[in-house]
Amino acid sequence: MKIKKSISLFLVLAVGTVYAYAITPGQKNKGKEAQIIENASVQIKKMADEIEKTGKILSPRTTDKNDKTVYVVLEEWTSGFFPGSLWYLYELTGDDNWKKLGIKYTEGMERIKKFTGNHDIGFMIYCSFGNGYRLTKNPAYKEVIIEAANSLSTRFRPGAGIIQSWNANKTKDWICPVIIDNMMNLELLFEASKLSGNNKFREIAISHANQTLKNHYRDDNSSFHVVDYNPKTGETRHKQTAQGFADSSAWARGQAWGLYGYTMCFRYTKDSKYLNQAEKIAQFIFNNPNLPKDLIPYWDYNAGKIPNEPRDVSAATITASALYELFTYTQNKKYKKYADTILKNLASDSYTAAPGTNGNFILMHSVGSIPHGAEVDRPLVYADYYFLEALKRKSDIESGKGLKLTDF
Ligand code: GLY
Fold first, then answer.
1. Which of 111, 51, 120, 119 has the alpha carbon at shortest distance from 82?
2. pLDDT, tens digit, for every residue of 114-150?
3. pLDDT digits over 235-244, tens only?
């Protein structure tokens, strides 16, 4: 018994030392931010340890009703977020152990560069290999990014000028559905264009962004979720939702994808229409009477039972990260203030999980898809990823370095 106790005490001290060590070197943040990063490091270290024990490349996504981590196959759209989070922790802490894990879990998903089953390869490859290349300049990663851009380009439909998100669906009468989320995949194309010198990727991205601006946005600057096209003529056939409350409603994560997407399009093109669109989306979000005071939205701005509806923390973290970038282009301090408020509120006990709980995800209270009954009021790997990205962007801005989103 005594021996067991001593061993336990040794383990607690040893593990504590490892965690303390993990967040000390390179830790330039002080005070509250340092605590948030320390907490995130402890949680994701536990998550990584669990995965390492299996000896497999696993892709954590959410938790089940018993709070156990749920893993998904690498072909799921969320597979790039865990490797991406490892890269952000490496940047936030300077600890090489995160880099080693980042390399391992990024390289473990290389086969995804050939994935053409839907549009999500942009999320998958850019969050993993994109961040990996940004931080290591490994030339093999560059080749993966270019090959992935080629894979994504196979879904471009020149007659409509868009990238087809999902395959046709007879039950829904969709021939060529495009979802607002697809704006996020354009980052892969813009970067691949720079890396390869092949302008085709950039032209596809610009065409998609323009068509989406024309067909997805309503007069109040909210966005439809799904627009179905005739791929030959570009005529729109349906404007609907798959994950929102109603076809005419504003699904919260969709508004966040649009805000992030158009801000990013301005980064690569300097075309003011994209910046204007991003500002209009921000206006829609922050002037919305249904946005709670703590700025963490309900899962849909028009959900039927507000205020008795689940929040979607993932929409909040995507929004915060986008707002830091929008702030750098506009110098409008209100964007940074909104983002700071979101991060501060997420760092509270209301949203941040106690270490060792929540399947070792950092944040609680996201929503995957209420219409599908999936991941309702659960942690989500992408909520954590954009939280870490937002923390990194905040730190870059406040240290005076400015945002260094790419330096390829
Ligand atoms: N891209 C899928 C989602 O946002 O749920």
1. 51
2. 999 999 999 999 999 999 999 999 999 999 999 999 9
3. 999 999 999 9
Q: Is the CB of 95 under 6 A from ligand 1?
A: no
Q: Residue 261 in 3-state DSSP?
A: helix
Shortest-distance Cα residue to atom 2 of ligand 1: 181
DSSP secondary structure string for all residues of 113-128: GG--SSSTHHHHHIII
Q: Is the CB of 61 under 6 A from ligand 1?
A: no
Query: Would the CB of 33 count as within 6 Å of ligand 1?
Result: no
pLDDT of residue 400: 86
Confidence of residue 285 (pLDDT cuts 50, 70, 90): very high
Ligand 1: which atom is nearest the Cα of residue 123? 1
Residues 362-395 as b or e (16 or more Cβ within 10 Å = b): bbbbbbbebeeeebeebbbbbbbbbbbbbbbbbb
Eight-state DSSP code of residue 184:
G
Rounded to two decimals, what is the model's pTM? 0.92
Backbone phi, then psi, for 388, in 5-degree steps? -65, -40
**25 pLDDT more than 60:** no
Q: 362: CA distance to ligand 1 center in Å?
A: 19
User: Active-site residue 95, yes or no?
Assistant: no
Could you identify the atom of ligand 1 that is nearest to the CA of residue 184? Answer: 1
Helix (H, G, I), strand (E, B) or coil at 187: helix
Ligand 1: centre distance to CA 5 (Å): 46
